[in-house]
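go over my protein:
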Amino acid sequence: MRRMSFLFSFLQVISFTILAQVPSPPSVNNNFQKLTSYTELSNYIELLGKQPGLLKVEIIGHSVKGRNLYALKFSSSVFGQDTSKIKVLIFAQQHGNEQSGKEGALLLARELLKPENRYLFNNIDFVLVPQLNPDGSEVNKRRNANGADLNRNHLILTEPETIALHRLFDRFLFEATMDVHEYSPFGGEWRKYGYRKNSDENIGTNTNLDVADGIRKLQDNDYLPFIFNYLHDRNFSSFTYCPGGPPEIDYIRHSTFDINDGRQSFGIQGTFSFIQEGMNGRDDSIENLQRRAEGQMTGMRGLLEYVYTNKVKVKTLVSGERKKLASSASGQEISIQSVHAANGQSLKIPLFSYFSQKDSLVTVKDYRPVVKSVSAVREPLGYLIPKDCAELLDWALRQSFVEIPLKRISDKKFIQYNITFIDSADFEGEKVVDPRYTINIRKGLPTDTGFIFIPTSQLKGKMLVLALEPKSMLGLATYEKYAHLLQAGKPYPVLRVEKK
């Protein structure tokens, strides 16, 4: 028995020794003097996949040019089967010229395979997608090989990279997600102003009003203080993600409330979802790469630490909000047009002074931290999409909406929007369509039953409303591919199905 016990202990030591010798990422081997290429990334992920224990590597799709999109799945059991665990998804480098997220993700993968970090997976099943835009990364360009901004493609889902990511999400329904980016503070207007932003990491929460209030409150009141302290304790500066400015030239806001980005597209589905923005290099993507990558890794690790400690709180909140989304009885108000508004507060924002070459605190007077609704509709039972509108049918298929047979709504009331005039509205400095219409109300199914019915009582129900309401400033009709849906003097092809 003593020999068997000794042998078991010896094998444990050997196993942990092997695990402790996790190979270093390419950036470390290159002393952070060059960016990790797609080939190096692929080879490194293949090497990590051979490590015993926690990690399984999956190819979730391919880029426009056929490059693999890798998902690193960390679990101490069969991924997704232990329902007591919380599922977390972090994805990086949607923008190909934002390199530190990818490098930080590879640093994180190495750290998570070390024996001292295995405890995280007692509570967490974790997926890391280190590079969503390999084609853009290879040429250090923002967009993918189709010229699309992937972080404005999560509603319309026209690109293979975002489609692959949402297929992954739909499969596991992660409770917490993070989208990792970089911000550039080095613009000409800021230099003229004499200051620039200087935080290592900026953290953004969900700002869309239709994301569950409970989720937004937990993010703002609990997670942000935690992550700011977590980063500070590890010698990284941080701040709330506040685009806009420079102060007194342009207003400062709390990011976008668009649901077509990686954070809000999951947040609108009742997810504890964030964006993390590390500071870009001044002249190229190599400058200060080690600190940038380590800051990104630390922020990602911080999310894992938070959900590890607060697993029950986050899971309970997300589960409750998702049950509400699936309820057919909510009928709540959905904000379809909003603005960034002031609330009388000023903002002290940490900036770097070009004059003194020191960090400074600057007071922002035109600060608009509030998203205010200016137009809302009551959530309907669902929408009828005409079968002869191929673009809409294809979109509904890509989004994996649940359909219901038409016979279940034969006694309901239907609304037809008739577009009379198409005006415009301001959306964060850009013009979007803002139609005027009259409505026809009728009972009973249309004589032409060439429709499919998509109900709002599903996880993506709020997304459905924001996408299909004709006056929604976040709707499909605001994109060129779907602009034909709104034509003055013609009926809007999608019918609204009322609850009563």
